[in-house]
Amino acid sequence: xxxxxxxxLNVGYGEHLIVKNLNVEIPDxxxxxxxxxxxxxxxxxxxxxxxxxxxRSGSIVxxxxxxxxxxxxxxxxxxxxxxxxxxxxxxxxxxxxxxYGRFPYQKGFGRLSNxxxxxxxWALEVTGTSTFKYRxxxxxxxxxxxxxxxxxxxAQETEIIFLDEPTTYLDMAHQLEVLELLxxxxxxxxxxxxxxxHDLNQAxxxxxxxxxxxxxxxxxxxxxxxxxxxxxLKKVFHIDAEIGxxxxxxxxxxxxxxLIKGEQKNEKxxxxxxxxxxxxx
Length: 281
Description:
ion transport; Rossmann fold; cell membrane; alpha/beta; transport; iron transport; 6-stranded mixed beta sheet; 5-stranded antiparallel beta sheet
């Protein structure tokens, strides 16, 4: 089932177009991971879909409606986003931060209702952060802090959660902790998870559906077998990869890789030739 999709989506900054005529479908109640090199449009796509930034043309459709025409609070009850580097207000406690997820449901002076408090405590419990409720957020470790941000997204009670590089700056143990939490939320709570990841093996292990981007366009979309292979990785990352099998999950995994230096040089030469040709004309 598809609830969320883009149709000929174009997004850019200034004169530079980053996402180009993009058509993607996000499977409902699955984990979707977006992969690609730096600057390919991964974060831009997430920001456009969640209406953090405007798109130039095309459409983003959720439940049959263009999101640009949706009421902000109504949309905030359907989707939540955890940015790559969330801003932290100094001195804010964990409980206070998680309570911000209840904003779409508050009326009047914004006082927390009994229902709000129940949901906040549930989100803290699910993410294993209840013991931090009265601690300052900026006093937590990176892994603890990331779980608290996820708790805030859960408190928003949305069926769709976007995360932009949720494992960045975390050590291996905390990366696995966060990804297993997201997987558990997907399996046990039917949450639709869309996240950007840099680690190809983590993408292959945890994602049901992978979208590989290059220069703002989809190179390949599908399951890990269809995307994590030598041909696709060559196009997306310009690497010659050796693909094996994860002995625990039997999913494909990138064992090692080399840069394809000769072809990379040729591409740069072609770019230079193109620039010179435009200058001449």
